[in-house]
Amino acid sequence: MDRDILVLEKLHPSDERKKPPSTANNIHWHVEGGSDDLWPLLLHADIIIGMNTMALLQAAILGKNPISYQPGAFNPNLCTAVRLGLAELHTAKGTLARRLPILLKKKQKSPEYPRSLPCSPPDAAKRVCMVAWELMR
Predict the structure, then answer these.
(1) Biggest CA-to-CA distance, the chain
(2) pLDDT band at residue 69 under the 50/70/90 scheme
(3) What are phi and psi for residue 69, nearest 5 degrees?
(4) Which pick of 34, 74, 95, 127 has the fewest CB atoms within 10 Å?
(5) What is the pLDDT confidence band of residue 112, given thresholds at 50, 70 and 90?
(6) Contact by Cβ (8 Å): 49, 67
């Protein structure tokens, strides 16, 4: 790649911090702690890669096109995002390596917050307030 690339590795909450791997001069690797908030990272990312993680579903909710990398997976459909067709699946390093330069060349849209989430009805906050009001009577 002929451009600078920032890799943010987001650790699982149960993982301990680790040192970033050695990379080419144009690749800047940063490791985020497991308890750091994930949504801002997903919102601004050009590419999101995970294995079998909720981050892939969250990325899909934000309109991203996440990748599930499961080397040698026997049952990749255990990943909910793959099973639902929300994440692109790669089971070999070679296919992922060929796909990444193509994805990095694509023009990325400016990040924007979703207007509504598919898992929450648009009037959810109003309904919660109404229940709270009834309980206070």
Answers:
(1) 65
(2) very high
(3) -105, 110
(4) 74
(5) low
(6) yes
